[in-house]
Amino acid sequence: MKRGIVILTNLELTALSNLARQNNCTQLDLLQKIKPVANQSAHYEQTVQFNAEEVETLLDYMPLPGSTANNSLESSRTRLQQFFTNN
């Protein structure tokens, strides 16, 4: 299974975590990976190791590109899509 690293800001982790919970994500490992880092600024960057299935799950939860004003989700989408192009 394909694995790789994605660097996400705390703001992006918060957006992904909220999105996963809104979609009733039951993958506890994934929820733990995208948990924002406590006591860090919004722009603090965290390195997260994902497998392809986890990235696909997060991308599936996302609304259509441009259909949200949430810049954190849009930047998260870009970073997650790069997972497939860079690995």
Overview features:
globular; 87 residues; alpha+beta; two-stranded antiparallel ribbon; 16% strand
Query: Structural class of the secondary elements?
Result: alpha+beta
The helix tally amounts to: 4
Q: Uncertain spans, ≥5 residues at pLDDT below 50?
A: none
Task: Please indicate the count of domains.
Answer: 1
Shape: globular
Number of strands: 2
- What percent of residues adopt helix (DSSP H or I)? 40-55%
Which radius of gyration do the C-alpha atoms yield? 12 Å
Order of helices and strands: EHHEHH
Mean pLDDT: 91
Termini gap = 12 Å
User: Order of strands in the sheet with the most strands?
Assistant: 1-2
The fraction of residues in strands falls at 15-25%
Largest sheet: 2 strands, antiparallel
Explain this structure.
The chain is α+β, with helices and mostly antiparallel strands and 87 residues long. The protein has one domain (3-86). It is 52% helix and 16% strand. The protein contains four helices and two strands. It has a two-stranded antiparallel sheet with strand order 1-2. The protein is globular.
Helices and strands in order:
Blueprint: E1 3-9, H1 10-22, H2 28-33, E2 45-51, H3 52-61, H4 71-86
Antiparallel strand pairs: 1-2
Give a quick precis of the structure.
The protein has 87 residues and is an alpha+beta fold. It is built from four helices and two strands. The mean pLDDT is 91.
